[in-house]
């Protein structure tokens, strides 16, 4: 498996940075279709990722990455596969969502990352701007379909 974590976004996306806003687009579109909106969240608070799994049986994280693949390609990875120990750094922005998953494992136990699915969408462009590229917009729709499949497996309905 390729090492995705060093080039992945902030675990919540930034809608002012083009395709980096993919996860925010996913949550916004899901929120319009699901009543239990309190269970949906988006933002770039990586530390919140450490605590999000607490009390939940399943958690899905969506994010954009730029790893050199085909724009709009979507990968589904188990949380345990992407959780990564943080290297020493004094920069706050060096704490990424993969580090937060790793920290969450140590706070809540290893079963936490096993209950997390990470959907990663290959970005075309992470630049200043409010629009998603065409390819990423299509991938957002696919991510929503996958999340709804996962929810349906647990008996949830919109």
Give the helices and strands, then pairings.
Blueprint: H1 22-31, H2 46-51, E1 59-65, E2 74-78, H3 79-82, H4 97-108, H5 111-114, E3 116-122, H6 134-153
Parallel strand pairs: 1-3
Antiparallel strand pairs: 2-3
Which descriptors would you attach to this protein?
158 residues; disordered N terminus; Rossmann fold; 12% strand; alpha+beta; three-stranded mixed sheet
Give the helices and strands as they follow along the chain: HHEEHHHEH
Strand order of the largest sheet: 1-3-2
> Structural class, judged by helices and strands?
alpha+beta
Number of strands: 3
**What is the domain tally?**
1
Helix segment count?
Answer: 6
Main beta sheet, described? 3 strands, mixed
Low-confidence stretches: 1-11
For the record, what CATH class applies?
Alpha Beta
- The portion of residues assigned to helices is 25-40%
Short description:
This protein is of the alpha+beta class and 158 residues long.
Give structural notes.
The protein has helices spanning 22-31, 46-51, 79-82, 97-108, 111-114, 134-153; strands at 59-65, 74-78, 116-122. Strands 1-3-2 form a 3-stranded mixed β-sheet. The chain has 158 residues and is α+β, with helices and mostly antiparallel strands. It is 35% helix and 12% strand. The protein has one domain: 3-Layer(aba) Sandwich (Rossmann fold).
């Amino acid at each position: 498996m390729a090492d995705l974590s060093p080039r992945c976004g902030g675990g919540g996306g930034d809608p002012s940075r083009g395709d980096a806003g993919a996860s925010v687009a996913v949550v916004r579109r899901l929120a319009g279709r699901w009543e239990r909106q309190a269970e949906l969240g988006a933002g770039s608070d990586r530390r919140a990722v450490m605590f999000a799994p607490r009390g939940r049986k399943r958690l899905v994280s969506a994010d954009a990455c730029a790893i050199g693949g085909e724009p709009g390609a979507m990968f589904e990875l188990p949380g345990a596969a992407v959780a990564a120990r943080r290297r020493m750094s004094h920069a706050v922005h060096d704490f990424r969502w993969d580090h937060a998953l790793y920290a969450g494992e140590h706070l809540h136990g290893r079963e936490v990352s096993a209950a997390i699915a990470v959907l990663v969408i290959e970005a075309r462009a992470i630049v200043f701007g409010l629009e998603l590229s065409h390819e990423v917009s299509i991938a957002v729709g696919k991510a929503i379909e996958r999340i709804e499949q996962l929810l349906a497996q647990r008996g949830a309905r919109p």
